[in-house]
Amino acid sequence: xxxxxxxxxxxxxxxxxxAITDLLLMHNFHILWFLFLYxxxxxxxxxxxxxxxxxxxxxxxxxxxxxxxxxxxxITRDIGDKDVIRAMRNVPRHLFIPQEHRGYAxxxxxxxxxxxxxxxxxxxxxIMTELLKIDSASKVLEIGTGSGYQAAVLGEIADSIFTIEIxxxxxxTARLLLDSLGYKNIRCKTGDGYLGWPEEAPFDAIIVTAAAxxxxxxxxxxxxxxGRMVIPVGDYSQELYLITxxxxxxxxxxxxxxxxxxxxxxxxxxx
Length: 271
Known about the structure:
single chain; alpha/beta; seven-stranded mixed beta sheet; 8 helices; 9 strands; 22% strand
């Protein structure tokens, strides 16, 4: 349900409240019963309209929604990288969200994708991608495929993406969707992201889309000299860190406060 629908809905509620009050004073319970039935039907219609909005819209409509998302959520928050803007414009975000939530695909917030996981807020996807400073020659590792949306955004910019998802059902769904959309430069696998993808290392950039209590050492080791990693660190209170690797080690820079689902698997066993 969008903002305009909500306004209409609350206006209806105000009118119905007045009508119900008048009918109670008149003891007209027969009409009151029909009024409650009408309210129930209207509520059902409003709920369904929000959930099916993006499903039934033509491509031109969802393209306009993406452009509005970019203008109101990204550019106004100083996302200025042209490649990132282009990628966010090209990727149909709504296709990476379960049908019952697609009406909210371009809203300014995360959305559930099942298995207690979420697709990140558009701004978070954009700023994490921008911080990586990738280009058409970059080789990128993603930890936490989720729906596949972040991988698709990366795939619009970089040469090759290697993405790992620990939940088999999500990994399978993301792989099928990315394949159907023609992303031949994205490789997906099911596994524990804490361990990275050593057979394909080193990477120009690494992006982690789940919060770890500390930065996994295997990922630092798989980052190329001069490479960049973005990762949310913390438990309840989290910060998004930019990690840069140089000949002396790594430089850690806290950027913004965030809220991600926790990383699971091997990282939970580490002291």
